[in-house]
Design goal:
ten-stranded mixed β-sheet, two-stranded antiparallel sheet, about 20% strand, binds S-adenosyl-L-homocysteine, transferase, rRNA processing, iron-sulfur
Length: about 350
């Protein structure tokens, strides 16, 4: 694990930590105001701290966790991908997406991923390690700073949403992800002050963790990566289905919806001739009918070496039509960041060294 950072700590632990450094307690709030309130991540810029204290605080509470390797932009600057090197040389990526009415950060919760979904680039290399709470939060604070600088043309300057849809399975790094959500949603200066409803935690369907999440008293949006309505196919597309079947995972989703009153987002990557048949749309419609659910279809983003392709548009339209006819609210996600390998399922930072050497 990386060194301890302010963002790992709740406000009480921050006060204890500054006291341990021999500093007065009010420094904790001052640091939090800089970091969460003003998005200042570097202690050198906190010039209202006495110079001697600054050095100590930098080393003990604000170590550099994320070293930028490179940043890429596309979609006329509305999509930006940042590649980071962590203290142990693990690589992760984050994506910032600007829309006319909002700015969304897509963050990684693990370096790599152990879930091995065959259509996802991150899944191919396996899991390197869990990220710490601060490594997650710092991605968001950095991206919020980019948004605040006005770099995302045509979008508001305030980052308003965070989706845990970058690298990793957030519910496999449960305590750190939950702590990160608390930092993101605590009012400033304790945290970033984002709305819980504007945080989306996306999962392959780790049923016990989904049930635990329902007990956290957090009204975050839960996204479930379903991708197939039948166990035969889902066993292949989302291997964890061999452990928790479609019926169980949907049951956990409906419990979450009942507990929180929040509509669950059902994610479904449209893969040509694999999961896009009309009968699968109808089966999905029957599974979701009358439930607090929304279907988000994702045109498959091609990953290197994959034998799979996105569904043709007419096939996608028919799938949407059938779901809607069954009364299911359905949208097709716009594909952002495809040409910078920053789209869903394309984050595979571990391959970048080779790319850089080219
Ligand atoms: N592990 C979590 C979150 C990360 S992926 C999860 O699986 O939900 C975020 C979303 O992108 C998931 O729905 C995932 O299935 C989807 N995805 C992965 N690879 C993709 C690809 N190549 N094209 C489109 N969507 C993909």
């Amino acid at each position: 694990m990386p060194p301890r950072h302010l963002a790992d700590l709740d406000p009480e632990a921050r006060r204890a930590a500054v006291k341990e450094l021999g500093l007065p307690e009010f420094r904790a709030k001052q640091l939090s105001t800089h970091y969460f309130g003003r998005l200042v991540r570097d202690v050198a810029e906190m010039t209202d701290l006495p110079a001697a204290a600054r050095e100590k605080i930098g080393a003990e509470l604000l170590p550099h966790l994320l070293t930028p390797v490179r940043e890429l932009a596309c979609d006329d600057g509305a999509t930006r991908k940042a590649l980071w090197r962590l203290h142990d040389n693990a690589l992760v990526e984050s994506v910032l997406m600007g829309y006319p009415d909002r700015v969304t950060a897509c963050v990684s919760s693990q370096a790599g991923c152990g879930m091995a979904c065959p259509f996802c680039a991150t899944g191919q290399a396996g899991l390197t390690r869990n990220l710490s709470t601060a490594e997650i939060v710092d991605q968001v604070v950095y991206l919020a700073g980019v948004a605040a600088s006005g770099a995302v043309a045509g979008s508001p300057p305030r980052l308003s949403r965070v989706v845990f849809m970058g690298m990793g399975e957030p519910l496999a790094n449960y305590p750190r992800v939950i702590a990160a959500v608390r930092r993101l949603t605590s009012p400033a200066p304790d945290g970033l002050g984002l709305s819980q409803r504007h945080i989306t935690v996306s999962t392959v369907g780790l049923v016990p963790a989904m049930r635990k999440l329902a007990d956290e008293d957090l009204s975050v949006t839960l996204a479930l990566s379903l991708h197939a309505p039948d166990d035969d196919l889902r066993d292949e597309l989302v291997p964890v289905n061999q452990r928790w079947k479609v019926a169980e995972v949907l049951d956990a989703a409906w419990s979450y919806a009942a507990r929180t009153g929040r509509r669950v987002s059902i994610e479904y990557a449209m893969i040509r001739d694999v999961n896009d048949q009309p009968w699968r749309a109808d089966l999905l419609g029957r599974l979701l009918a009358g439930k607090l659910a929304h279907v988000n279809l994702i045109p498959l983003n091609p990953t290197p070496g994959s034998r799979w392709d996105a569904s043709p548009k007419p096939v996608e339209r028919e799938f949407v039509r059938r779901l809607r006819a069954a009364g299911i609210s359905t949208t097709v996600r716009d594909t952002r960041g495809q040409e910078i390998d920053g789209a869903c399922g394309q984050l595979a930072a571990s391959t970048v060294d080779g790319a850089e050497a080219r």
